[in-house]
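Good day; I would like, with your permission, to put a structural problem before you. What I wish to show you is a protein chain and, alongside it, a tokenised description of its three-dimensional fold. Here, with my thanks, is the record as I have it:
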Amino acid sequence: MSIKLGVLLSGSGTNLQAIIDRIAEGTLDATIELVISSRPSAYGLKRAEKAGIQTMTMSKELYADPIKADEVIATMLKKADVDYVIMAGYMRMVHAPILATFPNRVVNLHPALLPSFKGAHAIQDAYDYGVKVTGVTVHFADDKYDCGPIIAQQALAVEEGWTVDELEEHIHEIEHVLYPDTIQLLAEGRVSVGADGKVVIS
């Protein structure tokens, strides 16, 4: 079954590109109906336009009231008839209007093994802490930052002598495979959230 995606982003859109590429290859049963950016200058918008995907940009003024901003986003995503909302480097929290419209259908990617190193500087924080293993987490978003049921994780052994930039590069390499793979599990209907709030993959 093919699923319809709405993608939220704020930056360069490399994870969006990974998803676009996998759809083009035929290894991801999905279509991207709409890309919404929190920044007009986000390069991810250009990637979407190049792929012929409808885009929408939110103004900074609109985010002055985050709930109102999310009402606008939820309305647009609903209008686009999306099945899942994919956060791909979206640097804002999602709130009740989006979460209630798409229960257990808002997916986020985090560049660390949650619950470790939450927040916007996860790669730098893990590097500064000197961890020997970090990684990537894909999870359903909820009303708390970098929480919500974990769908998939992949670990990365940190090699001696890596710079933080090298670590970031390896993290992105994992993201660009793990995220589309996880979205494919959603497309196959293999992901559900149990009564205990934990993800079950069939």
